């Protein structure tokens, strides 16, 4: 039946008779979806074993699921079932009235004025990192900038939201998160049968236990402290449900702290890592970034009031997240039958929204593979559909920390760009690793170079005229 008919199913790859495209989505999910979009268009149908799935690439179709008809789509699918093994029923995975209550409780922590109060923390933490980098620069020693960004963003989010110093636990958190990220992103058929013990599952449970111990220590130290902090952890511990007159259970507090600790640093760290890579590959953009930073800041550290005067810095971050969105795909489960773009979406279909593909849709992005920060200028952004760009998701479930993340990324980049330009280490391979987040498979080994003195000299000449 042609598209538009009541029984029309989205076109897509046939896959194997028994498993459909299940093995390919386990091995190379991003490539499978890119091929699907290339071969079949804006809506692609898949079968993963006994699960039906539909990939949506058009902004209007995505808007339908995340906004217009969002009540028909929930998170009761295998993707979120696996995430709940790590995060429990935190803000990312919870739904319904419980999610609304938690969102209302947590939202004030991410108000614009509250985020502005974290700017000094963000800048000072970056400056402390740069003190370590100075020694690396003197030795000309390559290092993994991804690991550095992870430690930096973890330190910032732990201090900002929970008034906690996790420096001593950073390596343990990083190792555990890498393990669970890999396992959740590369699940196997046996993972669906959670009761069957396997070495993978033992490693996963050990990683979750390590994360639980860090979070437990943060919560226990706060409960024993006589000092009252005005932070998110205090809000969680003191919250009382208006209907039941009861506070959160220890498990609920754990779920929210772990969700915000992990989600609050992992995605920003990846965004920054890919930004340094893209700037290294595009020296003209790096020149323009350094010129803006020097003209606005000179030699002083940035603060919240500088952000409106650093538009190119913001555009660099936005363009980086267009090309390499940290949360590269999200999914929803269709509660009831629906129709999207003339195709039938039966109930229990897993709807996949791959921002990596939508961010490269040629109908909405000119030369989509090119790094071009100024495509986010007001003039060039005019008329672009909202859901053509969704690094933080969209609709009511848009990431609560998007303002925090954007502020942090801009301040980190501006602070580093005052002192250094990063270059990709010779011979280092760069390959996408699409797990739960989009990481570079081999890390990102880079070298440090003094910020472009030619840029500084050009600014001085212009100022003297």
**Secondary-structure arrangement, i.e. CATH architecture:** Orthogonal Bundle
Count of discrete structural domains? 1
What fold name goes in the CATH topology slot?
Answer: Cytochrome p450
**Low-pLDDT segments:** 1-5, 454-465
| Straight-line distance between termini | 71 Å
> How confident overall, as mean pLDDT?
92
Categorize the overall geometry. globular
Rg from C-alpha positions?
23 Å
Q: Major β-sheet, in short?
A: 5 strands, mixed
Q: Give the CATH superfamily.
A: Cytochrome P450
Strand order of the largest sheet: 1-2-8-5-3
Please render the helix and strand layout as text.
Blueprint: H1 22-27, H2 29-40, E1 43-48, E2 51-56, H3 59-68, E3 73-74, H4 78-87, H5 96-106, H6 112-116, H7 119-139, E4 143-144, H8 145-162, H9 170-185, H10 199-224, H11 232-238, H12 250-281, H13 283-297, H14 311-323, E5 329-334, E6 338-340, E7 343-345, E8 350-354, H15 355-358, H16 378-381, H17 402-417, E9 420-424, E10 432-434, E11 438-440, E12 445-450, H18 453-464
Parallel strand pairs: 2-8
Antiparallel strand pairs: 1-2, 3-5, 4-12, 5-8, 6-7, 9-12, 10-11
Helix pairs in contact: 7-8, 7-17, 8-12, 9-10, 10-12, 12-14, 12-17
What does this structure look like?
The structure is a single chain. This protein has 465 residues and is of the alpha+beta class. The chain has a single domain (84-327, 375-464), classed as Cytochrome p450 (Orthogonal Bundle), CATH 1.10.630. The chain has 18 helices and twelve strands. It has helices spanning 22-27, 29-40, 59-68, 78-87, 96-106, 112-116, 119-139, 145-162, 170-185, 199-224, 232-238, 250-281, 283-297, 311-323, 355-358, 378-381, 402-417, 453-464; strands at 43-48, 51-56, 73-74, 143-144, 329-334, 338-340, 343-345, 350-354, 420-424, 432-434, 438-440, 445-450. Strands 1-2-8-5-3 form a five-stranded mixed sheet. Strand 6 (338-340) and strand 7 form a beta hairpin. Helix 8 packs antiparallel against helix 12, helix 9 packs across helix 10 and helix 10 (199-224) crosses helix 12.
